[in-house]
Amino acid sequence: METFPVVDMEMLNTEQRVAIMEKLKDACENWGFLELVNHGISHELMDTVEKLTKEHYKKCMEQRFKEMVANKGLEAVQTEIDDLDWEITFFLKHLPVSNISDVPDLDHDYRKVMKEFAQKLEKLAEDLLDLLCENLGLEQGYLKKAFYGTKGPTFGTKVANYPPCPKPELIKGLRAHTDAGGIILLFQDDKVSGLQLLKDGKWIDVPPMSHSIVVNIGDQLEVITNGKYKSVEHRVIAQPDGNRMSIASFYNPGSDAVIFPAPELAEKEEKKNKLKYPKFVFEDYMKLYAALKFQAKEPRFEAMNKAMETTSVNLGPIATA
Predict the structure, then answer these.
(1) Residue of 217, 229, 237, 238 lying closest to 277 (CA atoms)
(2) What secondary structure letter does DSSP report for 202?
(3) Global pTM value
């Protein structure tokens, strides 16, 4: 049984750097997921985020979720449900413009701490992108520039709770999917499990670890790396006991960013096979993804390829402010 990859970022500043970079490379190429420890975000901040998130759920969301379950008759279902998820969520936007001040029902302290947490995660995402550039043999900053568009990247957070489920064999916490965007950083509950990824045809648990950040590759990084890194199907299994907290932050390209395989990586592959991935505007991909999230990603790439063959949109060079 392979061990889920855990990367200790403090070790990057020691004589073990080469080994740690190799571990990061293997995780990106063969898992699409990894778990970061000693990532530079303080345990105190993470504990505060968790405490306030769970308090907010109890105060503002738990009753709303119970009413939704009652209205849909979900506690009495007898057959598998494949068109909804056993979760309750809200979304925060950070870049290019924050909406934290506008989201209702958030206490002042919670707004403040989520803003600070987002700033730390943004820096961590950009540091990670530079480490990926190093492993891929791309110039430093290439991935950040590829995400930039004209207004910088988009960055936002999905705060989700997965309450206890009476029929976990019939209702998924979150149905299997790949993530549409760039790089995803997840602060997950360290007591209630449920997140799984698909590897070699088998569902594998992503182990809950105290104060870790789970990282996974999105569809855009698969395209830019010309398939060297792959986005991986994952899901959340509903649990009969415990309320699972999930805070997933998505560092994505700007809406008008033009996404395509990095030329250096495409050239390395061209002797083996032709260019696999399309060139497209990120916003166009997101419109397609919205309708096809829980379906296979390959038809999405094919649809973008066909769309670009028939469009006259000018996909010029990447804007790098």
Answers:
(1) 229
(2) E
(3) 0.92
Please say if the pLDDT value at position 320 is more than 70: no
- Of 167, 239, 182, 204, nearest in space to 31 by CA: 204
Q: What are the tens digits of pLDDT across the range 165-174?
A: 999 999 999 9
Task: Give the whole-angstrom CA distance, residue 209 versus residue 224.
Answer: 30
Model confidence over 211-230: pLDDT tens digits? Answer: 999 999 999 999 999 999 99
Read off the tokens for 24.
């990061």
Tell me if the domain spanning 32-312 has CATH number 1.10.443.10. no
Please give the Cα distance from 285 to 218 (Å, whole number): 12
Phi, psi of 106 (to 5 degrees): -95, 130
Query: CA-CA distance, 51 to 46, in Å (whole number)?
Result: 9
State residue 269's pLDDT score.
Answer: 64
Mean pLDDT, rounded, of the chain: 92
User: How is residue 50 written in tokens?
Assistant: 């968790």
**All structural domains of the chain with their residue ranges:** 32-312
H-type alpha helices, the chain: 17-30, 43-56, 62-72, 108-136, 142-148, 219-224, 263-269, 282-292, 298-310
